[in-house]
Design a protein that fits this description.
Bound molecules: S-adenosyl-L-homocysteine, iron/sulfur cluster
Strand content: 15-25%
Number of helices: 12
Largest sheet: 10 strands, mixed
Order of helices and strands: EHHHEEEEEEEHEHEHEHHHEHEHEH
Mean pLDDT: 94
Shape: elongated
Helix content: 25-40%
Strand order of the largest sheet: 3-4-5-6-9-10-11-12-13-14
Structural class: alpha/beta
Radius of gyration: 21 Å
Oligomer: single chain
Low-confidence stretches: none
Length: 340
């Protein structure tokens, strides 16, 4: 039996047609699920009982279990348990412009970035589409809020779970459902080149963020093993293709690791690499993890790096730090959780 929260409007319409029903029933179900936020098929009073009975045979509405929740002023961090008892995280951040949710896309991650806590656990499996949709629905319900922005920056590599991630974006973006605007959705990838190309061809206004973290192959391969499969030149070619096709701007994430990639010469090299591209750089102060060989850059280096990019006419911002009290780096909550 499938979970109803993983079914796109298109697929639900096809289901109803196959069942000999009118396809608009799918819209009615979407309205109940995502506008009225109904928790039971039995409440869907404008749908005939025989249709409801069939729906109940084919789909469940099971929720995820909230295992723990840690709160700070501007952040709420959730640890969810999935039905097979795997654990994933989602983080709600309160910005002045709205509520932004960071969701996970896989249990663990195979990319093996040497500074990242999520990668400590190798990929166990991809998240199903419904497991991503429910992170959003359950946080909204738990806090009684609406989420205005969504980033795929939790545990996992979204482009290593491409089809489910695209269905997930489809569902939350659907006008007659949650209707989260595509320009308010950002998918972040460590640089899986074939999927960046596939993504370019989709006619979606979703934001793309690239985890760059280094501006030459030697350094990037050292901290991000994916660079051995897709080197910087292949990555930059794919990004240029994306920019040409979509006319959009791309975000480069650059986590500042003390004495590793935070020197002025790194900033100069980065400026050269990005010169002329329609992009901006998001500098991320490192959140220290159990990878004790990596430290956060000091404030001075962060500012110098920022100034150097500015001077070289690269658009740049420094990411606001959230939830120091609640071990906010992705993967940390799961890593610190001990079974009772
Ligand atoms: N796997 C995807 C998305 C999840 S990681 C990717 O790598 O892009 C989201 C971002 O957080 C990435 O840019 C990642 O490099 C960064 N990140 C990982 N661990 C971090 C840490 N401890 N401190 C700060 N940023 C971190
Ligand atoms: Fe995976 Fe992203 Fe962490 Fe790299 S930074 S190990 S790709 S989650």
């Amino acid at each position: 039996m499938k979970n109803i929260y993983g079914v796109t409007l298109n697929k639900l319409s096809e289901y109803f047609i196959k069942e000999g029903q009118k396809s608009f029933k799918a819209k009615q179900v979407f309205d109940w699920l995502y506008k009225k936020r109904s928790n039971s098929f039995d409440e869907m009073s404008n749908i005939k009982k025989e249709v409801i009975d069939k729906l109940k045979q084919d789909y469940n509405m099971d929720n995820l279990k909230i295992l723990t929740k840690q709160e700070d002023i501007d952040v709420v961090k959730y640890l969810f348990e999935l039905s097979d008892s795997n654990k994933i995280e989602a983080v709600l951040m309160r910005h002045d412009y709205g509520n932004s949710l960071c969701v996970s896309s896989q249990v663990g991650c195979n990319m093996g970035c040497t500074f990242c806590e999520s990668g400590r656990l190798k990929k166990v499996r991809n998240l199903e589409t419904y497991e991503m949709v429910l992170q959003l629905l359950q946080v909204e319900k738990d806090l009684n809020i609406r989420i205005s922005h969504l980033v795929l920056m939790g545990i996992g590599e979204p482009f290593d779970n491409y089809d489910n991630v695209i269905d997930f974006i489809d569902i939350i973006n659907e006008d007659i459902g949650i209707a989260l605007g595509s320009r308010h959705i950002t998918v972040s990838t460590s640089g899986i080149v074939p999927k960046i190309k596939e993504f370019s061809k989709l006619d979606k206004q979703v934001n793309l963020a690239i985890s760059l973290h280094a501006s030459n192959n030697e350094l990037r391969s050292r901290i991000m093993p994916i660079n051995k499969a897709y080197s910087l030149d292949l990555l930059m070619d794919a990004i240029k293709e994306y920019l040409d096709k979509t006319n959009r701007r791309v975000t480069f994430e650059y986590v500042l690791l003390k004495d590793v990639n935070d020197k002025i010469e790194n900033a100069i090299e980065l400026s050269k690499l990005l010169k002329g591209l329609n992009c901006y750089v998001n500098l991320i102060p490192y959140n220290e993890t159990s990878h004790i060989e990596y430290k956060k850059s000091n404030q001075n280096s962060i500012m110098q790096f920022y100034d150097t990019l500015k001077k070289n006419k690269i658009n740049v911002t420094i990411r606001k730090e959230f939830g120091k009290k609640v071990s906010a780096a992705c993967g940390q909550l799961r890593a610190n959780y001990k079974e009772e």
